[in-house]
Amino acid sequence: MPRDPKQFTQRRIQLVVGIVLAGFLYLQFALSDENEVVLHPRAPLVMAAMVAQDPFEKLIRTDPHQALIEARQRHGRQVSNYRCTLVKQELLPSGMSEEQEIDVLHRVEPYSVVFHWRRNPGLAERVIYVKDRWIDPDASPQERDLALCQPGPVARILLKSIKQPIHGKLAKKTSRRYIDEFGFGKALDLLIRYCDIAKEKGDLKLEYCGESRFDGRPVWVIRRTLPYTGEGSFYPDRVAEIFIDKEYHVPVAVYCYADESRDSKSLLAKYEYRNIRFQADLTDADFDPVTYGM
Length: 294
What we know:
By secondary structure, the chain is an alpha+beta fold. It has one domain (64-292): outer membrane lipoprotein receptor (LolB), chain A, CATH 2.50.20.10. Helices cover 27% and strands 30% of the residues. The protein has six helices and twelve strands. It has helices spanning 5-30, 45-51, 55-62, 64-78, 169-174, 184-201, and strands at residues 81-92, 95-96, 100-107, 112-119, 126-130, 146-150, 162-165, 205-214, 217-225, 239-245, 251-257, 267-278. Helix 3 packs across helix 4 and helix 4 (64-78) runs antiparallel to helix 6. The longest helix has 26 residues, at 5-30.
């Protein structure tokens, strides 16, 4: 018995509508925040535009230098304190350090930092620095600012704490960066400073490298290349790979290398910021030595 032409037409319409709806559902899933979109080289340009509709994402793809500047401005407006875990490893005068894991509390105003080493501590297990709280008026200008250091469990039997200059010889031996240089704001300041200098001299190569994931979160990756010539060079490194968190717009990981091989032999330093909690409701007690028995 021949099919009714009207019934056949209705089925075709239903089939077409179903295919269109399925296509929209697929696009919605593929473009959601929980999934990373991988575009085929021949995908329509309109698809790429949909992926990069966030103004900051467009900026970091086209002008990563300006994106760093905007990220610094946003961070300064929005963040007053946070907790995180810092994982760092650095090439020191004595050689490559062990990888350290440090619980950190940071407050912007007054500038305050607490470091508590969880893995591979140096001479101190905990350090507290609050700007202008501990000052040695008799020291040279470079060594007047002091931090309060808590030794390990054995040494604490005899000594609860000791003050040390944050820019002193001991600090230089144990870290490439001083404690008053900690923080996303300071890290962005340092990145921008050398980008500005290198750009003015015609030395800057700063490129967008794509997307990745760090600590389970989506990030953008940019790479800075400078004419670093080794220890004593004006520039701090040859290559810096910088991972910018897509939500926070801060560098959650920075890897610095002495040459473009970017392997363990050329590693100068790595800084990873994990378990970040912004606006952590920190109080004066969190930066008070009495809280930690110091």
